[in-house]
Structure formats: C-alpha cells, structure tokens
Amino acid sequence: EPEVTQTPSHQVTQMGQEVILRCVPISNHLYFYWYRQILGQKVEFLVSFYNNEISEKSEIFDDQFSVERPDGSNFTLKIRSTKLEDSAMYFCASSAQTGWQPQHFGDGTRLSIL
Amino acid sequence: AQKVTQAQTEISVVEKEDVTLDCVYETRDTTYYLFWYKQPPSGELVFLIRRNSFDEQNEISGRYSWNFQKSTSSFNFTITASQVVDSAVYFCALSPGNTGFQKLVFGTGTRLLVSP
User: What are the backbone dihedrals phi and psi of residue B82, each rounded to the nearest 5 degrees, phi first?
Assistant: First the structure.
C-alpha cells in the first residue's frame, strides 16, 4: 500500500538554526499538509497546500515557517530560525481530495531543538 | 470556531472487555467530516474511519463500531473484546467544510491501555 514517507526520523538542531523537514506524499495525491504534535499533546494543524500554493494556515504557521514543493515528489517544511518551543513531532499528510478522502500521515519527524 | 473534545484522558481495561471512547465536537458548519485516528506507541497516525455530517448510520468493522449522533454532536468509538494490540492513543478529528475541508481539528486524544 502506498505511504507517505518523511525524512529524517529525528532531527537535532541548535536554537536559531534553520531546519528543513522532508516529505514524499503518496504519488497521486494532490493535497498536502503539515501538522505538529508537542510531546504528550494533541496534533495541531499547521498548513495545507494545493496547486503549488498554501490553501490554509494556522496561527502557529508564522513567518518563520514556509513550505515548498520543489519538484514533483517532495514536499518540505522549513523553519527559518528555530526556537526551543519548536521541539515537536512534525507529521506530513496527503490526500487525493479534501473532505471525504482521508488524510494519510507519514511516520513523523521528531525535531529536537537544543 | 471548531472544537473536538475527548473528555477521557486515559482508560484502562482488561483484555476482552468492551470499551467506548467518547468524542464530542463543535462546529457551525452544516457540512463536515469526522474521523478517528489511532496512534500506537510507535508514533504514527493510522486512519480508522470517516463519516460525513449527512450520514448518521452507525458503522461496524470487525471489533470496531462507531456511533454518530448529530443531535448530541457526538461520534463515539467502541472496541468490542479489546486486545493488547489495541493499546494506543485514539484521536477524534473534525474536518470543517467552511474552508473546503482543508484541515483536521484534533481532540486531545484518549490513551487506551489494554492489559492481558
């Protein structure tokens, strides 16, 4: 069964550094998403992306964050200057359509900011 | 605004017991979708079921069943004859229609511990 893959599985970064999290969505999916989950808390929506532009973003997704689909397969989340509070599990998801079609999640990237 | 409430933080049962996980949601949208996801100890999020706001039929899939009641804004999940492998955190989620179902709004999750 096709799946969403995320790399790396764990990223350790010094505060203030830039980090790029990578995702390869399911190949025929058109909608892409990033979520984060701070340890022990709920999963929070960050951003959705369709047709090479952001469709919706949350209050968490401020100017420090950006997303990109640099080629036909990858979908990236960049955090420009990381803060301690950015430490979390980041999940990428994709779906064939919005609404009825479920979002399929990757295994996540655990981001640790030191 | 949309909100999903899972009041049960943690539930412990013994294998073969039935268990119901509660989910209450809030939305002003007339069209929306509801989902349940499972997060096992390994951390991934596994899709279990979806429901749209116009379909109140209950659904059964093996040992899993779901009860959607629009009148009480609830979408509860029952596991019959629980097994140790069911131990996980279960998240209920809402996809609101007002912005084109672009996001999932998750509840805080219910941790289910099934002991042998």
Answer: -55, 150
Q: B101 to chain A: nearest residue by CA?
A: A99
pLDDT for residue A99: 65
Are residues A55 and A45 in contact, defined by beta-carbon separation less than 8 angstroms? no
DSSP state of A103: P
Most confident of A47-61, A65-79, B5-19: B5-19
Residue A93 has pLDDT above 90, yes or no: yes
- Residue B2 to residue B37: CA distance in whole angstroms: 18
Residues 6 or more apart whose Cβ sits within 8 Å of residue A87 = A38, A39, A111, A112, A113
Of B37, B46, B50, the CB nearest to A100: B50
| pLDDT-based confidence at residue A43 (cuts at 50, 70, 90) | very high
A-chain residues near B42 (CB < 8 A): 107
Q: Does B3 touch chain A (CB under 8 A)?
A: no
Mean pLDDT of A51-71: 93
Tokens representing A95 are 């779906």
A24 vs A34: CA distance, rounded Å: 12
Strands A19-24 and A75-79: antiparallel
**SS3 (DSSP) at B72:** helix
DSSP A98: S
Average model confidence (pLDDT) across chain B? 92
Tokens representing A60 are 């968490």
Identity of residue A80: R
